[in-house]
Each structure stands twice: as structure tokens, then as C-alpha cells.
Specification:
By secondary structure, the protein is of the alpha+beta class. Among the domains are: 224 residues, Sandwich (Immunoglobulin-like), CATH 2.60.40; 77 residues, Immunoglobulin-like; 90 residues, Golgi alpha-mannosidase II (Immunoglobulin-like, Sandwich), CATH 2.60.40.1180. The strands form 11 sheets. The protein has a 9-stranded parallel beta sheet. Strands 2-3-4-5-20-17-16-13 form an 8-stranded antiparallel beta sheet. β22, α3 and β23 form a beta-alpha-beta unit. The chain is globular and about 70 Å long. The termini are far apart. Bound molecules: ligand MIG. Ligand MIG binds next to loops.
Length: 778
């Protein structure tokens, strides 16, 4: 194709850009207050302002009619009662809560958001809110020299998105993801701006195709949509963690995952028969490599019909699942949205009979080509259909399955546009709406149907859902893997900022296909990737049909031993990770985070793409290049101890760190602690003994953290069956004092105490709750 050659940049072939003319919202002519909402009549449209909390405001512009305020698929809360002080003059209306100030200039209508110190966070000047005749809506905001932009969900490229123009349109991209690949599987129209140590967030709640442009100008940035309302929320932070708490207050937080889903997952497109799966499982047991999950990709089905098993390949799935469970392994099957058009297939029959499939306005079912051939797609925008689909999962739960993998739910269709016809009219619970508007939430709503259906069917057990597509709020239902990457070192590198930005977008439980999906992996890449994977929130090795198998033993004993060490380490760290997942479920904070989240005052952290943190006190600095055994590591403020060697390093410096193939450089901040467990066996991965490793500091320092545990698989924690310890560590020259500030919950773990170990050559005495001791008795 000529477009793929240099012909694309043939002189004279430059794209001509017609000057786009936007109609500005114009002067504000009238203000009316109804309930807690302010409605502005402007010359060219209407605007609503609501305080969701004292730190979150919502702005909604509608060029035609009174803004609609109740159609969100992402926001799960109603506005709180916020006390607002008002000052109104000829030129400006000022609305003030305790955490923010809004200045609404009237001629023309321009909105500024300020913090209580009077610093301008978000502001409009020459340009403000505008639209075009074709329905496009846009907001222009001033860009400051020191603005750094993060979040935007699942994007390739580097962490900071300044200088980029990003598109949101859920897309199945098998072509190699590269830094200019834009729209991917998830659309999360949310970002956080970090400026001189202070952060604020903007959530543009619009499900049409949207764009975020931090590229066109150095003076302003913009966000726009192909249709709908200009509807956005500003979260004033000011700490990055507060921004994320505010954003996830709006869009929800992840449910506490079943502990088994935090273990190691092994996948392949596909393990094709029962015999192959059994052999795979036995290999893990024989080699003593812990594994919690084996995924079944599309070959398990009968002709790719969802809710079926191929009887020849998998003659007795129930027995297989039971036997694997005995071995400590769960099975997660893939479920795609496409239902094969086959008049002898019960799911299709039922779907047609009950009118559950997406249709055109004229009433014809939409058919798209996917794995099973022509297929119909459930209309997940309709509550009734979600319930139908959810209930169908009894097929899986009745044979012992507790987790589902949703793929192709952008939805992906094998055609030119890669998706469903945008003219399809979704029923949308009585508010018919085209696919053009609801495309980006199709995956989210499939996830909702699946998660809720699994939860009902599992009767008290926590379901696990893995989903490829989603929209803001996807964290409420599923974990997300970053789709079809490749076995390239560049893709290992890119997975770090990708997962960190997903974490900054409210989605804490994510990870890439470890080893790379397409292309042949190699021993060194797989080994280095497994080291990283051991600490990404979601840890799954997955590879594609036609490429090299990449189970941990495929490249000989030397590599197997190293990968085994890191997969085992995942389980040693499980008590620490589980406590962080608890934090994600409560506050929306990511497990894996960029350094800037903990050190927003340190500009050196603003663009670190090749290091990440686990929680607030551990830095990982993996090797991400072939044949490299030394790398530069930036350590921020504080003193740091290298996990494997015990060596101390000074903060606010770059260090050259040596790491042979078997080494992953990990640094723990002095004065803090990490929880490490010993697990029983591959069959029973419960924590047997628990140790708190205290990285003693001889300076006066204090550190607090929360340790959380429960049975890991039921909802009994909702009734108080958990163990939660708020811990505090006071370091000083001669002693380390550990205090259990608060203990909550009635869960009795099988370990009866927490052993305390001082790491590093220190000889301080250790006190627990005032008495000299090296254990916390539970
Ligand atoms: O287009 O089910 O991203 O993980 O193995 C291929 C087969 C469809 C895409 C998923 C990949 C999965 C594959 N699927």
C-alpha cells in the first residue's frame, strides 16, 4: 500500500488543514439556581455548575438545551450538599467552597478554578467552551510552562503526555503498539495535571470519540468530543493522591480481589486440550513453581460458541477444574461478546427470542464477523440484557469456575472500521442511543454484566474478571491487561508507563502480557519481564498462536531457576501486595505507582518511565534492555537499602546499580517496613508465617502503614471478618518502637504472630507497644 511507503510524505501531499471555526459560548446573560445546581444562560448555549463535594466541581455545557445531568455511565455518586459562598458583580460571579473557588467571568463566559490560596488551577482566557455545527464540543484551557500531564488510561508512549494529542475510541490494535499508537482498548477520558508540586484532575465524562490535545499550542490545551455535552469535573487535589481519591470517589474503586487472582497466571492462545492443560499444571507442581490460574483461550469452545465446551478437546471440564483446584490452580475461560449466528445454538436462539441483541433502528439485528463467523452482539446497555448475560454464567460457576476473561469487547469486529456499525441503535434502558455515542462504554457494560452475574452465581465467593475494553469506572468490575503487545524489549519498557498511567487513572489492577503476546520471545527478555511481572498488579504470562511457547521452563534450567525465584517472590510479597490492594479498594490508590505520586515536590521524578514504586516505600528499577547488567537509578529523598544486598544508598542522587540476569534492583526506604510471608505449598498458598522486615533507620523518623488480611475469597470481610492493623514505626539511634495504633476486625489468620526482623547492620533494641519484644502477637 502506498500509504505505508515514503509516498505518504511525497511533497505536495501534505494534509491541508481547513481553519476550524468554533462557536464560542459567548456572554453570560442570566444565572438561575435550581436546587444545588447553577444554570447559566449564555448567548450561544447553556451551562450548569454543580459542586459534587467541596473539592470537586462539575461543569456541563449544552449548546442546544438545558444540560442533562443524570446520564453518566461512570459516575456513581450524587452531588453532596456543599456550602457555597456567592459573590456576584457585573463582571464576575464567584462561588466558593472551603476547598476551591470558581470565578465565572461574564463577558464572555469564562471559568477559572482556584485553590483556597488563590492559585489558579484551571482557567480559560481567549478561548473557553465552544462547539461546531457538526456537534463537536470543545474546552480550551490555559497551559502553563510547568504543566505535566498524566493518566489518560491506557496509552502507549511515555508517562508525561505533554506534547501529545490523544484519542479515545476503544480499538482492537493487533498491529505493534508504538509510541504513536493512539486509541487502544480502553477509553478513560481523565487526566491529572502536575504543576510545581500541586496536582489537579479533569474528568471529561463524554462517551463519544474524544480527543485531548496538549500538542497544538504551548499556550493552551483542549479536550473535545465528536458529540454530546461538554461535561467535565475538576478535582482540586492538591496532592496527586488526593486527586485520585477524588476521581475514584466519583467513578468508584476496585472491589477487594480474590487473593488467588493476585498470584501467577499462565496463559496461551491456546492450551488446546484437557490433556495439555493437565500436563501444564503438573509441570508447575513438579517444578515447584507456584501458579494460581490457567487461562483457557478460544479453543476450549465448540466452534467459538460462548457458554460451550468442545467435547472432543475438553471431554470433562468439571473434572478437570476440580482436579486442578486440588492442585491449587483455578481455570479462567475467555468469553467474547459475539454470539454465533446459528439457529441451532441455544444462546443465539434465546437472544433472538428475547430480543437481546444490538439492532438497527429499523429492527434488524446487527451481525459482525468475529471468531465464530457472523455473530450477534448482546445489547449490554440494557439492564434486562445484562441480567440475562450475567445469569448465563451459571454455565461456568456450576462447574467450579470463579473467574472470567472478557476479550474483544471494544467490541472488535473483523471489518474496515474494526467495530460495530456506529448507526446501531442501543436500547439503553429506554433512552435509545447510537453506537457512535455508546461505543466506548460497550466493554464497561459487558464487564458490569459479567461481574455482577458471576457474583450472584458464586454465592458469597469473590469473582475475578479480566477485561480488555473499558471506560472510566472499569475498576469497579475488572482488572485490565494491556492487550496484544509483542515480545520486544521496547514493549517491556513501554509497559511501565502504561501500567503507571492506568494506575493514575483509577485502574489499579493491571498488567501486560508477560513475555509479550505476539512475536517469539527469548530467554533473556522473558526472564527480565518475569522480574517486572512479579511486581505488576496483574501478573500473567500469555503468548499467541504460532509463536514460541513461553512457560517459565521453555528456555532451559538456568532461566527457569531465575523465573521460579521471582514467581515465588510474588508469593513472599503477597501480604504486602494484598495490603496495597486493600488500599486500592478503599482509596483508589494504585499498587504500582510512578515516583511522582510519592514525591510530587521533586521535579526529577516527573518523567521517570523506567522505575516504579510498590506502595509508598519500595522502588523497583528493573533492567529493560538486552545484555545490560548496570543501570542508573534515581533515588528520591531519604536513605534507601537495596533489598538483595542490604547496601545503603543516599537519596536525591543517581546511582549506578549492578544487576546480573538473576537480579532485580529493589530499594526500600529506611525507616519503613515491608511484610513478607512464607506460604505453605503450591497446593495451598495461604501465608503460613509472617514477618515484618523493618529497614531500621538511626535517624529520628516515623512511618505508618496499614496491614490488612482476610480469608482472601469470601465477602465475610463485609461483616468484620478481617484483620486490620494500623502500624507505626519510630526509628531513632538506639531503639525502634513499633506501635499497633489500631487493631480492627475479627479474622483469625493461621499465623498467630508477626515476627519482627531488623534489616541492615543495626543494633537498636526493638519495642512493641512499649515493651521490648520482637513479635506482635495477634
Ligand atoms: O484477536 O482469543 O488480546 O489475548 O489470546 C485475537 C485470542 C483475539 C485477542 C486477545 C488475546 C487473545 C486472542 N484475542
Amino acid at each position: 500500500m502506498l500509504g505505508d511507503t515514503s509516498f505518504a510524505i511525497h511533497p505536495g501531499k501534505e494534509k491541508k488543514v481547513d481553519a476550524v471555526v468554533y462557536r464560542d459560548i459567548g456572554n453570560l446573560v442570566d444565572v438561575e439556581k435550581t436546587g444545588a445546581a447553577y444554570f447559566f444562560q449564555c448567548v450561544n448555549g447553556k451551562v450548569a455548575i454543580q459542586f459534587y463535594t467541596d473539592a470537586i466541581i462539575r461543569v456541563t455545557m449544552n449548546q442546544k438545551q438545558k444540560p442533562a445531568l443524570n446520564h453518566s455511565k461512570a459516575v456513581i455518586v450524587e452531588p453532596q450538599l456543599v456550602e457555597v459562598e456567592e459573590h456576584d458583580t457585573e463582571e464576575v460571579l464567584i462561588l466558593k467552597s472551603t476547598k476551591l473557588e470558581l470565578h465565572i467571568e461574564k463577558q464572555p463566559c469564562r471559568i477559572k478554578v482556584l485553590d483556597p490560596q488563590g492559585r489558579v488551577l484551571v482557567s480559560e482566557d481567549k478561548h473557553g467552551m465552544a462547539y461546531r455545527e457538526n456537534g463537536e464540543v470543545i474546552a480550551f484551557k490555559q497551559m502553563k510552562e510547568n504543566d505535566h500531564f498524566y493518566g489518560f488510561g491506557e496509552k502507549s508512549g511515555h508517562l508525561n503526555k505533554r506534547g501529545e494529542r490523544l484519542e479515545m475510541w476503544n480499538t482492537d490494535v493487533y498491529a505493534p503498539h508504538n509510541p504513536e499508537t493512539n486509541a487502544l482498548y480502553e477509553s478513560i477520558p481523565y487526566f491529572m495535571t502536575l504543576r510545581d508540586g500541586n496536582a489537579h484532575g479533569i474528568f471529561f465524562d463524554n462517551t463519544f470519540r474524544t480527543f485531548f490535545d496538549m500538542k497544538t499550542s504551548e499556550e493552551y490545551y483542549s479536550f473535545s468530543a465528536e458529540g454530546g455535552q461538554l461535561d467535565y469535573y475538576v478535582m482540586v487535589g492538591p496532592h496527586p493522591k488526593m486527586v485520585l481519591e477524588q476521581y475514584t470517589y466519583l467513578t468508584g474503586r476496585m472491589p477487594l480481589p480474590p487473593k488467588w487472582s493476585l498470584g501467577y497466571h499462565q496463559s496461551r492462545y491456546s492450551y488446546e486440550t484437557e490433556a495439555e492443560v493437565r500436563e501444564l499444571a503438573q509441570n508447575f507442581i513438579d517444578k515447584n513453581i507456584p501458579v494460581d490460574v490457567i487461562h483457557l483461550d478460544i479453543h476450549y469452545m465448540n466452534g467459538y460458541r460462548v457458554f460451550t465446551f468442545d467435547k472432543e478437546r475438553f471431554p470433562n471440564p468439571e473434572k478437570l477444574i476440580a482436579d486442578l483446584k486440588e492442585m491449587g490452580i483455578r481455570v479462567v475461560p475467555i468469553v467474547d461478546p459475539g454470539v454465533k449466528k446459528d439457529s441451532e445454538y441455544p444462546i443465539y436462539q434465546e437472544g433472538v427470542r428475547e430480543d437481546n441483541f444490538c439492532k438497527y433502528i429499523e429492527g434488524d439485528i446487527y451481525y459482525g464477523e468475529v471468531w465464530p463467523g457472523a455473530s450477534a452482539f448482546p445489547d449490554f446497555t440494557e439492564e434486562r440484557v445484562r441480567k440475562w448475560w450475567g445469569d448465563k454464567h451459571a454455565f461456568y460457576t456450576s462447574i467450579g469456575i470463579e473467574g472470567i476473561w472478557n476479550d474483544m469487547n471494544e467490541p472488535a469486529v473483523f471489518n474496515e472500521t474494526k467495530t460495530m456499525d456506529v448507526e446501531v441503535m442501543h436500547r439503553n434502558d429506554g433512552n435509545p442511543t447510537t453506537h457512535r455515542e455508546l461505543h466506548n462504554v460497550y466493554g464497561l457494560l459487558m464487564g458490569k454484566a459479567t461481574y455482577e452475574g458471576m457474583k450472584d452465581n458464586l454465592q458469597g465467593k469473590r469473582p475475578f474478571l479480566l477485561t480488555r475494553a473499558g471506560y472510566a469506572g472499569v475498576q469497579r468490575y475488572g482488572s485490565v491487561w494491556t492487550g496484544d503487545n509483542r515480545s520486544f524489549w521496547e514493549h517491556l519498557q513501554m509497559s511501565l508507563p502504561m501500567v503507571m498511567n492506568l494506575g493514575l487513572s483509577g485502574v489499579a489492577f493491571t498488567g501486560p502480557d508477560v513475555g509479550g503476546f505476539a512475536h517469539d520471545t527469548n530467554a533473556e527478555l522473558l526472564t527480565r519481564w518475569t522480574q517486572v511481572g512479579a511486581f505488576t498488579p496483574f501478573f500473567r504470562n500469555h503468548s499467541a498462536i504460532g509463536f514460541r511457547y513461553q512457560e517459565p521452563w521453555q528456555f532451559g534450567e538456568k532461566y527457569e531457576a531465575i523465573m521460579k525465584k521471582y514467581i515465588q517472590m510474588r508469593y513472599v510479597w503477597m501480604p504486602q501486595l494484598y495490603s496495597l490492594f486493600y488500599q486500592a479498594s478503599k482509596q483508589g490508590l494504585p499498587v504500582m505507582r510512578p515516583l511522582l505520586m510519592e514525591y510530587p515536590d521533586d521535579v526529577k521524578t516527573y518523567n521517570i518511565n523506567d522505575q516504579f514504586m510498590i506502595g509508598d516505600n519500595v522502588i523497583m528499577a528493573p533492567i529493560l534492555n538486552p545484555a545490560v547488567t548496570d543501570r542508573a537509578v534515581y533515588l528520591p529523598e531519604g536513605d534507601w537499602v537495596e533489598f538483595s544486598t542490604g547496601a545503603s544508598y543516599e537519596g536525591e542522587k543517581v546511582h549506578l546499580i549492578h544487576a546480573e540476569l538473576e537480579d532485580l534492583p529493589i530499594f526500600v526506604r529506611k525507616g519503613s517496613a515491608i511484610m513478607q510471608g512464607e506460604w505453605s505449598s503450591n497446593q495451598d498458598k495461604q501465608t503460613k508465617t509472617l514477618t515484618m522486615n523493618v529497614y531500621a533507620s538511626s535517624n529520628e523518623e516515623s512511618y505508618s502503614f496499614t496491614f490488612y488480611d482476610d480469608d482472601g475469597e469470601s465477602f465475610a470481610y463485609e461483616n468484620g471478618e478481617f484483620l486490620k492493623l494500623d502500624l507505626e514505626i519510630q526509628s531513632s539511634a538506639d531503639k525502634i518502637e513499633i506501635n499497633v495504633v489500631e487493631k480492627e476486625g475479627s479474622y483469625q489468620p493461621s499465623y498467630r504472630e508477626i515476627k519482627i526482623e531488623l534489616v541492615g547492620a543495626t543494633n537498636q533494641s526493638v519495642f512493641v507497644n512499649g515493651a521490648e519484644s520482637k513479635r506482635i502477637t495477634l
